[in-house]
Structure formats: C-alpha cells, structure tokens
Specification:
heterodimer, A: alpha/beta, Rossmann fold, 3 domains, six-stranded mixed sheet, 11 helices, B: mainly alpha, two-stranded antiparallel ribbon, globular
C-alpha cells in the first residue's frame, strides 16, 4: 500500500497543561511492496508517526494518505475499519494483547472483526499459526496464558497476520528477545513480505543492524521530524550526524570505518552482513585498491 | 484517549496552595466537608462558594483543563438534581402540569445537594491536582499516626494508597496500549448496542487484569527481596514542615465554617 504523509503534525493532550508536540511537519512517502525502517532516539516520535498509518491516531495538522484513504484532522474513527484490515500492526510486547479462552479463538478475533465467519476465521487463524512456526495442533485448543513467553508472542503475531493485511507496521517487535530470537522473528516478517509483491512493512527499531539488514529504505527521526532518509548505504554514511541524534551505525560499518581510518585507505563501508564485511577486510589486507 | 481525565493527576505549579503542607490541606478539606453538610440553606453555602472560588484562583489551575475534566461529574450531579427535583414532596406546589408536579421544597433541596456535591468535588480534585501523591500519603500517614495505638495499620494503609495512586498513570498507559492493539485488530468500542459494547470490553479487561496481577506479584517480590518492612522504626528523608501560612489557611477554613454555621437556618 502506498503511504504519503504531508506536513503531518500531532500534539498529545491538546489543550491541557500536559500538551506535547510529538510530530511536526513530517513529509514522507512509502511505496507499495517496500521494506522500510524508521529509526530514532527514544521520544523522537517514531511510534506516534506509525500509529497514523492505520488510523489509530488522527493528525492534528496536515494529512496522511494510505492507499485511497485520506486522513486529516477531524476524520472519524468509524470510517477507518477498512484501513485497519489492510494495515496490520504488531506492537512492542504483542503478547499483552492476548485475551481469549483458546489460542485458536484469539487468533480468529481479528478476521472475525473484519466480517469473516467463524469457520473462515479459524481457517485463516490456523494458516497464520503455521506461518509463525506453531505446528503443534494440540496447542491451538490451549489457553494462550499456558504457553511460554516466546510462544505467546508468536500467537499474538499470528493474530495480526490472520487478518491478511497488505502492510505490517512493526513497532519494535523484537524487544526483549535474545539475539537468536530476534533473527528468527525478523526472518519471519521478511519471509512474509516476500510472499507477495504487494506486501510491505514498516519497521520501527533501535537496532541499526536490523534496520540495515531488513530495510531497503530508512527514515531517521529526531524531535518529531524526519531529518534524514535514504537507502542504508546513504543513511549510514552520515556517522557523525547520526551520533548527534543519539544514534549509531551498524557494528560492521563501525568496524570498517575504523579500519579505513587506521589503514588510511578508503573502504566500501556499506557492507552490513558479516560475509560482506569479511570480504571487504580480505580485500583491504590483499591491498586491492580498486575503486570503491 | 484519556486526555481529559483529571483524577489523580498532579499539575506542577508554584502556587500558595501547592506549597501548603499536605496535612493542612487534608484537614481543611475534611473540615469543609463536614461544614458543607451542616449548611442547610443556599445562603449558608455562599461563604463556601467564595472559599472554593478563591482557593481555585490561588491554585493557578487552567480553567479549561479543569472544566473538561469535570464533565462527567457535572453529568452525575445533574442527574442527582433532576431525581431530587421530582422525588421530593415538600412545601408548596410550584409547577403542576398533569403528570409533572414540582414542589418548592424539592427545588431548594435539589439545588442544595447539587451545590454541596459540586463544591466538594472541586475541592477534593484540587487536593490531588496540587499535591504530589507522595506528599498526600505522607500527610495521611502522619494524620492517622495516633490511631496506630489502637491497632490501625496507618503505614500499611498509606503505602497501599500510594501504590494505588502511583499505578494510575501506568494502568492508563497500559489500557491505552491494549485498546490500540485491539482496535488495530478491528475491534470497536463505540459501536452497536449496549450488550455489544459491554462484550467488546472483554478483550480489553482480560489482558489488563492479567497484567495487573503480574505487576502486583513483581512488586511484592521486589519489595520482599529488599527486605521492606515499613512498620518498624522508619526514618524519612523528606519531612513535612508545618508553616505559619498553613495555620493561616486552617484559620480561614474554620472562619468559613463558622460563617456557614451562623448563616444556617
């Protein structure tokens, strides 16, 4: 789905002593079928921004267009159900949203809200559960609260995927997971996105490595506005500016930058996987000075 | 979503009311409460109205913000007013159109109750708006202190209250998050019949309860791990000091009370 924000602004608790401007004049465009990351320091407004994309928040100023739907100040919540079916959202600690008696029913909650019958919804729910790696059917009749933490998170994500959205908003979905769990979780979303050309996701993250690996385009937010955007190569070539905003570059890039300084030779620092980084180092050691 | 809720909120300001000793505020509120219900004529309540108005002006709380937060209370008071108006049968008949009869006594009675409740709610919410939760519980604890001798667990009560107050914002934040997560899954909290709306709350209440239990357990474990035992000889880093201005405020409250007593019929 195509997303476009124009001069988007949002103020929390408007007209109270606690008024706080969270977004100010945000302009951005996300193309259909793309993998996008939004990075920024705590409080930079990234979560507020993505909550506009499925209409959870209505802009205080400007507008946001998602597909054919235009949301501006004053748009009514009731008109947004269609949009929420097309844009799924995985929050930080999604397991906190589980509530139903059985795993199967909980996963079917979304599709049933969007007008499917119980059987259809359960069918989609089972597909989604298999997709997130829960193949053991005896689990489906259990209460979600009997499961382990990792399983609960998978069930919650299945609950979002079951509505078959075109676009996923991932608000730090890997928070609190160990490194292995993080990779598995991100591979799951990456695999989901590749299944169809129309599918896209927006990843909100603190991890520059995740942003570099799982996104083709990155937006950097600072104090409620987009301050830098571009491909990972472009964004992570601005190490100093990123540091000013309380951000860094991926560890591999950091290593190559340091090596490049020490060896006094230019290196292609835009290698984000361990393999590519190793190749770059080998090339440096061999003294291969071909242009970078 | 809960932008207009003012219960348990603290608005930081540098006002006379903010600087008052919490004990003084609690005692004033308590006295005022009793006196309000002694005043049995609208005229008798006039000093009370003036008192609350001046206190509100001194506290420097933005009027619009406050008025918005009181909306629900105003609705409740209006309903009480209407009920009293139709249920009381005293004095002369004022209006009589077929099925509807309003008595004179009913009108005075209803407005009396409404004014009392209104003043009470304003003053009580001003207490939490101008006092930090920690000051409030400290104040309560010292006020209840003498009751320890007859076995009232003053410290534990104060602690329970401060924990409850402390977790109001947390709980609101949690609620907002779960509401959003369920809205994103197509739930709707504001459509359909009453039964449907009540049912729609289940996906919100179950996670909220589970989270609260978990949090309570974590908190208990954390406190026990640190060997918390507040009932034994505990010294305090922050100590309350009773100032001359607090005595003055107390005098003003008593004076208001006396005036109400004189004016009552």
């Amino acid at each position: 789905m195509h997303i476009k924000a124009q001069d988007l602004g949002y103020t929390y608790m408007k007209n109270t002593p606690f008024e706080k401007k969270a977004l100010d004049g945000v302009n951005l465009e996300i193309k259909e079928g793309s993998r996008v990351a939004i990075v920024g320091h705590t409080g930079s407004g990234k979560s507020t921004l993505v909550q506009h994309m499925n209409g959870l928040l209505i802009p205080s100023e400007g507008s946001l267009t998602a597909g054919e739907m235009e949301i501006r100040p004053g748009t009514k919540q009731k008109t947004l159900s269609k949009l929420r079916q097309r844009v799924g959202m995985v929050f930080q600690f999604p397991e906190h949203q589980l509530f139903d008696e059985t795993v199967e029913k909980d996963v079917a909650f979304g599709p049933m809200n969007f007008g499917l019958t119980r059987e259809e919804a359960c069918g989609r729910g089972r597909d989604a559960l298999r997709k997130v790696g829960l193949h053991d059917e005896s689990l489906y009749k259990k209460s979600p609260f009997e499961l382990s933490g990792g399983q609960m998170r998978r069930v919650a994500i299945a609950g979002v995927l079951a509505s078959e959205p075109e676009m996923l908003i991932l608000d730090e979905p890997t928070a609190g997971l160990d490194p292995e769990g993080r990779v598995k979780m991100m591979e799951l979303f990456s695999g989901w996105q590749k299944e169809s050309e129309a599918r896209s996701y927006v990843l909100v993250t603190h991890h520059m490595e995740d942003a570099a690996t799982y996104a083709d385009y990155i937006f950097v937010m600072h104090q409620g506005t987009v301050v830098l955007e571009g491909s990972p190569e472009v964004v992570f070539s601005h190490e100093e500016r990123l540091q000013q905003w309380g951000l860094g570059v991926p560890k591999t890039t950091k290593l190559l930058i340091e090596l490049s300084k020490k060896a006094n030779t230019p290196i292609n620092v835009a290698s984000f996987s361990v393999e590519d980084t190793a190749k770059e180092i080998v090339r440096l050691l061999k003294g291969d000075k071909r242009d970078v | 979503m809960f932008d207009n809720l003012i219960i348990g909120q603290y608005v930081p300001r540098e006002s006379v009311i903010h600087r008052m000793d919490p004990r003084a505020k609690l005692v004033c509120l308590f006295l005022f409460m009793i006196v309000l219900f002694i005043g049995n004529r609208i005229i008798a309540l006039l000093p009370g109205i003036l008192f609350v108005a001046v206190a509100f002006w001194l506290a420097q709380i933005p009027l619009r913000f406050f008025a918005k937060g009181l909306r629900l209370i105003v609705i409740i008071i209006t309903i009480t007013f209407i009920l009293h108006l139709f249920m009381t049968r005293e004095g002369n008949v004022l209006v009589d159109i077929g099925w509807l009869t309003i008595y004179e006594g009913a009108l005075t009675q209803a407005s009396l109750i409404a004014v009392r409740l209104f003043l009470l709610v304003i003053l009580a919410s001003m207490l939490t708006l101008t006092t930090t939760p920690i000051d409030l519980t400290d104040g309560l604890e010292t006020l209840f202190g003498p009751l320890k001798k007859i076995g009232v667990p003053a410290h534990e009560l104060a602690l329970t209250m401060s924990i409850a107050l402390r977790f109001i914002p947390t709980l609101l934040g949690e609620t907002e998050k779960i509401v959003k997560a369920q809205l994103a899954r197509g739930a709707s909290f504001s459509e359909g019949s009453l039964v449907k709306r009540a049912k729609a709350l289940i996906p919100l209440l179950v996670p909220l309860l589970i989270q609260s239990f978990k949090r309570a357990e974590d908190l208990a474990t954390a406190m026990e791990a640190r060997g918390y035992d507040g009932s034994s000889e505990r010294t305090k880093y922050r100590e309350l000091t009773w100032k001359r201005s607090d005595t003055f405020m107390l005098m003003v409250t008593i004076l208001t009370g006396v005036m109400i007593l004189i004016l009552r019929g």
